[in-house]
Amino acid sequence: MAGISSTYFQALNGVKQGGVVSPVLFCIYIDDLLKRLSASGVGCCLGSNFVSALTYADDIVLVAPTRFAMRKMIVISDMYVLQYDIIFNAQKSKFLVKCATS
Q1: Residue 53 phi, psi dihedral angles, 5° rounding
Q2: pLDDT digits over 32-53, tens only?
Q3: Inter-residue contact 69 to 58 (CB < 8 Å)
């Protein structure tokens, strides 16, 4: 509500949920991870585009052709989050596998 403010608090990591600049800050912060994932050569071709990860606001989707390729991408992501002290919310994480049909 206009004119109402909260008490002071210190943000130790992350971006403000719903903040206008938060998606931009997230993209800047996570850009190196996206470069690492792309450089790994793991991903899928969607049309004529090679895709290893998709992002929107503060969400990331890893795209891999096999569960082994996905595991490699998760290891790359794990190393990145350890290096930069990032926390991924495991409770909000999902894994989707498309099974081959005969």
Answers
A1: -155, 145
A2: 999 999 999 999 988 899 999 9
A3: no
Band of pLDDT at residue 20, cut at 50, 70 and 90:
confident
Instruction: Classify residue 77 as left (phi > 0), alpha (psi -120 to 50) or beta.
Output: alpha
The pLDDT tens digits for 74-95 are 999 999 999 988 888 888 887 7
Q: Do 43 and 52 contact (CB within 8 A), yes or no?
A: yes
With b for 16 or more beta-carbon neighbours within 10 A and e for fewer, the 25-37 pattern comes to: ebeeebeebbebb
Taking alpha carbons only, the member of 13, 26, 97, 101 closest to residue 59 is 26
Rounded distance between C-alpha atoms, residue 20 and residue 101, angstroms: 44
DSSP per position, the chain: -TT---------SS--TT-SSHHHHHHHHHHHHHHHHHHTT--EEETTEEESEEEETTEEEE--SSHHHHHHHHHHHHHHHHHHT----GGG-----PPP--
